[in-house]
Design brief:
By secondary structure, the protein is α/β, with parallel strands linked by helices. It is built from eleven helices and 13 strands. It has helices spanning about 15-25, 60-70, 85-105, 125-140, 160-170, 185-200, 200-205, 220-230, 240-250, 260-265, 290-295, and strands spanning about 5-10, 30-35, 50-55, 75, 110, 145-150, 150, 170-175, 180, 185, 205-210, 215, 235. The strands form four sheets. It has a seven-stranded parallel β-sheet with strand order 3-2-1-4-5-6-11, with helices on both faces. It has a two-stranded parallel sheet with strand order 7-10. Strand 1, helix 1 and strand 2 (about 30-35) form a beta-alpha-beta unit. The N and C termini lie far apart (about 45 Å).
């Protein structure tokens, strides 16, 4: 990777900042493509002299995408949204990046999708992700497609969100308590991206599903978080009929879930049996208990001052 140029779309985001660090450590030059490049300036100190570049690009404007990938050896697309523009971002934007990468002669394209991507999915998110994968394959057949499960890490909006809720609410309602998750550590996803970029011939055309070593139900996940932040797990499992009603009213201020997210919860977010995973890239899966308590500590009553020597979180709590 020494000196090779990688254009990274979405590098300023949660996964992007870890992918950037992995690529920079491998010696790559990284070009951050953002609508507002200033969002990625905080990553500049991570690279050596001349190792980082910043360019304005909007995946909704193919001309800016083409300029961003010009001269790049590899391209990585991490851009995604849960907002109203899912089709524009996940399908049209993904197609624009793939077409530009192919036209520019990039040797590798890594497209980061999500477990549950399926053109026939009942949820807009899953459907748009699936249609985006098809668009990428049509434009750049040798693309490596990565489908992470729910991603955890210090800046995540998953474990941290539930931790805030558990810390503040006397009773925490749990929707779809039996739904299963296989959270994957953000640095493991970043390493998979790095290896996919480093060895394009080996991973060309591959679709891999990235999950961690732990598979937990929603209720088990909430109990794990409660244990990590030293709070009682006062959980109230809601019947599906009640959960669906809450999701239907998702436009109301403070509603915990919208209808599309409810539809996504009807399917377990776990790696499909037999699907290529982190092992294909030689990346060992990191257990949640070895990482998450170290950053969830901020949600304890006394923060890090509440930490006891030698303590660990218990996934079975």
């Amino acid at each position: 990777m020494e000196g090779r140029l990688v254009t990274l779309f979405g590098g300023a985001g949660f996964i992007g900042r870890y992918a950037a660090q992995a690529l920079l450590r491998a010696g790559a030059r990284v070009r951050f493509a953002e609508r507002d490049p200033r969002r990625a300036f905080f990553l500049k100190p991570l690279g050596g002299l001349g190792q980082t570049q910043f360019v304005a690009a909007d995946i909704g404007r193919p001309d800016t995408v083409a300029r961003a990938v010009e001269g790049a050896d590899s391209v990585v697309n991490l851009v995604g949204t849960f907002g109203a523009a899912m089709e524009q971002v996940h399908v049209d934007g993904a197609r624009a990046v793939a077409l530009a990468a192919a036209t520019a002669g990039a040797e590798a394209l890594v497209h980061v999708s999500a477990i549950g991507a399926d053109p026939a999915s009942p949820s807009r998110y899953g459907r748009s992700k699936g249609e985006g994968e098809a668009a990428v394959r049509a434009a750049f057949p040798g693309a490596t497609i990565l489908r992470p499960a729910v991603v955890f890490g210090p800046e995540d909006d998953f474990l941290n969100r539930f931790a805030r809720l558990i810390a503040r609410a006397p009773v925490v309602p749990v929707l779809r308590a039996g739904a299963r998750f296989q959270p994957v550590f953000v640095a493991d996803v970043a390493d998979a991206i790095r290896f996919a970029v480093t060895e394009p011939g080996r991973h060309a055309g591959l679709t891999a599903e990235l999950g961690g070593p732990d598979v937990l139900t929603m209720a088990e996940l909430m109990r794990f978080i409660a244990g990590a932040i030293h709070r009682p797990a006062r959980l109230l499992s809601l019947p599906d009929a009640v959960g669906a009603g809450i999701a239907r009213a998702g436009f109301l201020p403070g509603a915990p879930i919208n209808w599309d997210q409810w539809l996504m919860l009807q399917r377990d977010t776990v790696v499909a049996p037999g699907a290529p995973g982190l092992d294909v890239f030689g990346v060992p899966a990191t257990p949640m208990a070895s990482v998450a308590p170290g950053y969830l500590v901020r949600h304890r009553r006394m923060g890090r001052f509440a930490t006891r020597a030698g303590e660990t979180a218990d996934l079975s709590a």
